[in-house]
Amino acid sequence: MSSKSLGILYGVLGVVLFSSKAVMVKLAYRYDVDTLDLLLFRMLFSLPFYILILFLIRKKPSKAKISPKDYAWLALFGFVGYYLASYFDFEGLNYIKAGLERIILFVYPTIVVFLSWLIFRQKITKVQGIAILITYVGVLITFWDELDVSGNEVLLGGFLVLLSAITYASYLVGSGWLIPKFGVLRFTCYAMIISTLCIAIHYLLAGSWEFMDYSWQVYAYGLAMAVFATLIPSFLVSAAIERLGANNFSILGSLGPISTILLAFVFLDEKLTYWQLIGMLVVIFGVTYLSIQGKKRAKG
């Protein structure tokens, strides 16, 4: 198998596994688990693996000189990109369906464009503007259909998931210059450890302290999220990006909403209306159009 074919395989598996997280969260919520407890389980169960990886690569030199300021930035991005983004996402899933959550999260590339314009004054091109407009029209179509059913709860859930997309996009924009210094593996492990510490502190301050009182299924879902929706896909995606490049991989991301909706249909019995299907396809078209045009500009 060629390197490109292997990259596509890794990318597809990584995207599908990442997409399964929302379905696992919804399944765990059926057992009345607290949001913060479930998030704590996910991070604590994955923590030993990231510590082990750091131990295994401890002798591998960094690609550049790392200053105390770099570590401070790393702590900030771990807080924003993994703790805040995850917390908002888990909270939002209390109110909206898994399929809708993935569609809203999928707009993060358009938020990256906005933030790059706001922070770095990078001009938003006509192509980017068209892609962003298409994407948000698709979200509106999907979202509007849900409002007819659930009303204010969907508004709250959608807003929380949008906050998750904004914080994750902020992480992508801000950490791009930092990752080459640490290397992908070391940066990811450090960021995940920092995120776990943030969640532990949050739990100490506001937790229910009932984390030992759940049925075994809750802990099983927490472990499954840690291994199959966090750890394994994080390295599959890194391997895919290494073989395909970030631009090519971003196109594979279009599979995310589709796989989540299919998994939600199978495991959660979530129904998909014609308007939701149209909205989903419009969102995927908008983001894919943005990714393809960005790839063409990079080549040019």
UniProtKB/TrEMBL annotation:
<keyword id="KW-0472">Membrane</keyword>
<dbReference type="InterPro" id="IPR050638">
    <property type="entry name" value="AA-Vitamin_Transporters"/>
</dbReference>
<dbReference type="InterPro" id="IPR000620">
    <property type="entry name" value="EamA_dom"/>
</dbReference>
<feature type="transmembrane region" description="Helical">
    <location>
        <begin position="38"/>
        <end position="58"/>
    </location>
</feature>
<feature type="transmembrane region" description="Helical">
    <location>
        <begin position="100"/>
        <end position="120"/>
    </location>
</feature>
<feature type="transmembrane region" description="Helical">
    <location>
        <begin position="249"/>
        <end position="268"/>
    </location>
</feature>
<feature type="transmembrane region" description="Helical">
    <location>
        <begin position="274"/>
        <end position="292"/>
    </location>
</feature>
<feature type="transmembrane region" description="Helical">
    <location>
        <begin position="70"/>
        <end position="88"/>
    </location>
</feature>
<feature type="transmembrane region" description="Helical">
    <location>
        <begin position="218"/>
        <end position="237"/>
    </location>
</feature>
<keyword id="KW-0812">Transmembrane</keyword>
<feature type="domain" description="EamA">
    <location>
        <begin position="156"/>
        <end position="291"/>
    </location>
</feature>
<feature type="domain" description="EamA">
    <location>
        <begin position="6"/>
        <end position="143"/>
    </location>
</feature>
<feature type="transmembrane region" description="Helical">
    <location>
        <begin position="127"/>
        <end position="144"/>
    </location>
</feature>
<keyword id="KW-1133">Transmembrane helix</keyword>
<feature type="transmembrane region" description="Helical">
    <location>
        <begin position="156"/>
        <end position="180"/>
    </location>
</feature>
<dbReference type="InterPro" id="IPR037185">
    <property type="entry name" value="EmrE-like"/>
</dbReference>
<keyword id="KW-1003">Cell membrane</keyword>
<feature type="transmembrane region" description="Helical">
    <location>
        <begin position="187"/>
        <end position="206"/>
    </location>
</feature>
<protein>
    <submittedName>
        <fullName>DMT family transporter</fullName>
    </submittedName>
</protein>
<dbReference type="Pfam" id="PF00892">
    <property type="entry name" value="EamA"/>
</dbReference>
